[in-house]
Write a structure and sequence with these properties.
This protein is of the alpha+beta class and 97 residues long. It is built from 2 helices and 4 strands, in the order αββαββ. The C terminus is likely disordered.
Length: 97
């Protein structure tokens, strides 16, 4: 990784850290001016903000994101009995990318 990529990686990390509380849930790498970002964030707003913020960084040629939004399913007794939900699941990840 050259110095430019290291600088862009630090800037990417800063953007992710400001937008989401769980920095460890999002991984990233910058290689040859391309940012690769993937992980899980709590809201669609955070997902979009990370993508937009990183895309604004000068020096990046491309930004490739694969961010999912975490959705917590309601308790079994509150689920629709019409079969819209599968058997009880603690968490369900829904990718909007």
């Amino acid at each position: 990784m050259d110095e430019r990529d290291k600088h862009l990686a630090w800037r990417t990390r800063d953007i992710i850290a400001v937008i989401t509380e769980d920095v460890d849930a999002v991984t990233f790498e910058v290689e040859d001016g391309v940012a690769y970002i993937e992980g899980v964030v709590p809201t669609d707003e955070q997902r979009q903000a990370i993508s937009k913020g990183v895309r604004r960084l000068d020096g990046l040629t491309h930004v490739i994101t694969c961010l999912a939004t975490e959705h917590v399913m309601p308790p079994a007794h509150e689920q629709d009995k019409g079969g819209l939900y599968p058997a009880p699941v603690a968490r369900h990840y829904h990718s909007l990318s």
